[in-house]
Design a protein that fits this description.
With 260 residues, the protein is an alpha/beta fold. It is built from seven helices and eight strands, in the order βαβαβαβαβαβααββ. The protein binds nicotinamide-adenine-dinucleotide.
C-alpha cells in the first residue's frame, strides 16, 4: 500500500472512537478531527483538567483513565460500547518521555533512566498492548475495527537523548507488525504512525530553543484518520515535518545472513 485514502464523513458518521492521551497535543487534534467528521469520540487521559477542557471544546466525552490499567481497559471498552453502541476506532496515542527537561546526553544517564524506566514502559507499551487486547474481542464480535498506535521515528532510528523512550517505541512497532496477522484473522486492523517532531507539550524546551522544524499536531490527526480507514494492516507509517504527507516504511523481509 503506498497511498492513503482521503478522509470523508461517510467513513466516520455514527462511528465510535476512543482516543488515549486526548487531553493534549496529537490526541486532542485527533479527537477534534474525528469528531468533526461525525464520529462519537471518547477522550481518555490521566490529566482531568486538560482532558475535560478539550472534551468540552470538541463536544465529546472525557473519562479519566490510566492506560496502564489492565482491568480498567475491559471496563472502558464495555462502557463505551454500552453507551454508544460500538467501538470502531481505537487510537492508542498516550505516551511519555523519560528524559528530564533540560538534561543532556553529557549527564549521567543512570539516575533518570532507572527512575523512569518502568513508568515509561507502563504508559508507552502496556497502554498499547492492554488497549489492543481489550478492544479485540469486542471488535471481533462486531466484525470490524481499526486500531492505530502512535509510535515514533525514535523507534526506528536511534534517540540517544532518551533511550527508554526509543526502546518503548521500537517495542510497539514490533508489536504492531507481529500481532497484525492474528488481528486480521478476526477482522481487525492495527497500524502505527511514527511522527517526527510535532509541536506539542511533550517536546523538551531545548528542542524548541534549537529551532528545529516541528509539524503541527493537526497534520498527525489527518494522517491518523487516513490510516484508520486505509484497510492497511501491520503498516508502519512515517510522518515527519520534512516528509509530510505520510509514507509507509518497509522493513527488510528477511535476514539472509552477513553480506557476501
Ligand atoms: P502530549 O504530552 O501533548 O500528550 C500526551 C498525553 O498523554 C497527555 O495528555 C498526557 O496526560 C497523556 N497521558 C500520559 N500518561 C497517560 C496515561 N498513563 N494514561 C492516559 N493518558 C496519559 O504529547 P504528544 O506529542 O501529543 O504525544 C502523543 C503521542 O505521540 C505519544 O505517544 C508520543 O510518544 C507520540 N509522539 C510525539 C512526538 C512529538 O514530537 N510530539 C513525536 C513522535 C511521537
Amino acid at each position: 500500500m503506498s497511498a492513503l485514502p482521503e478522509l470523508a464523513k461517510r467513513n466516520f458518521t455514527g462511528k465510535v472512537s476512543i482516543v488515549t492521551g486526548g487531553g493534549s497535543g496529537i490526541g486532542a487534534a485527533v479527537a477534534d478531527r474525528l469528531s468533526k467528521l461525525g464520529s462519537k469520540v471518547v477522550i481518555v487521559d490521566t490529566n482531568d483538567k486538560d482532558g475535560q477542557s478539550i472534551a468540552d471544546a470538541v463536544g465529546c466525552d472525557f473519562i479519566r483513565f490510566d492506560v496502564a490499567d489492565l482491568e480498567g481497559w475491559e471496563q472502558l471498552v464495555a462502557d463505551t460500547a454500552r453507551k454508544h453502541g460500538s467501538l470502531d476506532f481505537l487510537c492508542l496515542n498516550a505516551g511519555i518521555g523519560s528524559r528530564p527537561r533540560g538534561s543532556s546526553v553529557k549527564d549521567d544517564p543512570i539516575p533518570w533512566i532507572l527512575s523512569n524506566y518502568k513508568n515509561v514502559l507502563a504508559v508507552n507499551i502496556d497502554g498499547v498492548v492492554y488497549g489492543a487486547m481489550a478492544a479485540l474481542p469486542f471488535m471481533e464480535r462486531q466484525g470490524s475495527g481499526s486500531i492505530l498506535v502512535t509510535a515514533s521515528v525514535a523507534g526506528i532510528r536511534t534517540q540517544p537523548p532518551d533511550p527508554i523512550y526509543a526502546l518503548s517505541k521500537s517495542a510497539v512497532i514490533s508489536f504492531v507488525r507481529s500481532v497484525a496477522p492474528a488481528l486480521a484473522e478476526r477482522g481487525v486492523q492495527i497500524n502505527a504512525l511514527c511522527p517526527g517532531s510535532v509541536d506539542t507539550p511533550i517536546q523538551p524546551d531545548d528542542r524548541r530553543l534549537e529551532g528545529r522544524p516541528m509539524s503541527p499536531p493537526e497534520e498527525m490527526a489527518e494522517a491518523i484518520g487516513r490510516i484508520l480507514i486505509s484497510g492497511d494492516n501491520g503498516g508502519i507509517w512515517i510522518a515527519s515535518s520534512s516528509d509530510y504527507p505520510v509514507w509507509r516504511y518497509e522493513f527488510a523481509s528477511a535476514i539472509d545472513g552477513p553480506p557476501s
